[in-house]
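Hi P.,

Sorry for the delay on this. The queue was packed all week, but I finally got your sequence through. Input first:
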Amino acid sequence: MTGQIAIIGAGPSGCFLAQALLKARPELRVDLIDRLPVPYGLVRYGVAADHQGTKAVTRQFARLFERQGARFFGNVGVGSEVTLDDLRGAYDAVVLAAGLSADRALGIPGGDLPGVHGAGKLTRALYEHPEAEALPKLGTHPLIVGNGNVAIDLLRLLAKSPEELDGSDLGAGPTEWLAGSGIEEITITGRSPAAAAKFDTVMIKELAKLTGVTIRVIGAGESDDPEAQKKLAALTALEGGDGPRRITFRFGMTPLAVEGTSGVEAVRFATDTGDETLPCTSVLTAIGFDTPGDLPRDALLKDETEGKLAAGLYATGWFRRGPRGTIPDNRADAKALADRILNDLAPDPDKPGATILQALDTLTDYDGWCRIDRAETANPPPGRCRAKITTREDMLTLARQEDMP
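Then the structure:
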């Protein structure tokens, strides 16, 4: 008897889970459901535009739909077009793999002043997410709070010259915005000492390739831990340069307040030697992510055990673990959860499965995504590998076009 499984979220965690399920049981019916008209989620709208090697994972995800039999149901809002209870009633198992897209708030006085921008909000605009807001003015001295990989991605993009973005999929609007930003200095701050910073060493080494910058590292400290020493060595190797755009790393800086009247003027920090105030023209927060509220994550995860939330309901990826781990980490998480689901699975032949989705008149499918993909990659501008379709309406129009014979 064939089981039917719905995965809410067609990003990396959802795709890795579908791969693991279908590898173990090719006869399963696995449907990936996403609120966007296109699949791949974080890979398309979260991975840095200049990290095309990381984005290449979509080629193996394509095989999921083209060879393994998974189906894509796009432009479906869970909670609007269909409810979670509807899906649980229609499928033998439902998996929440919707990720986390809301920026975690600073939670300090002044944290809501004009000029404070979450990294997720900013990168969605940079990577032309259809629901993104307009790119903001950052001024000459933006300050980044956070020192994980997201913070380093943002730093690198803000510091690059237009020529250094060749080969990326950064759109014309974001490219023009970066070129005209007028940024003179970027300060990046972290609460922890450098030895305990959350960025990967390889991300720091990539910054050494930047041209046109001068880099300072203040208060990196020392460590006896071999892995930490690699981070410190990579940071030390960055120092120097003679470019006009300055980058300053600061560590052991706990933000206390964002200061300003009508907008950001400075951030006050607690340090080992007392309070210190750093002037800046904007604040970019890269301190983690949370659920945007369309799914009641906290309530759903209340009794979570190894990915299982309730009978026939599971969670994986960032939705389950929080904003920790890289795309490859999701693969191991998915394999373990797939084993659990298959052990629990008790197919019910009376469940309608995707029938409840197929009646939706705004649905997109994998063939529709392929039309969008071909349009984006057919004739990209010089120095770019694709030109993204940026609005939901245009994506839906392309997705529904009949292929020419």
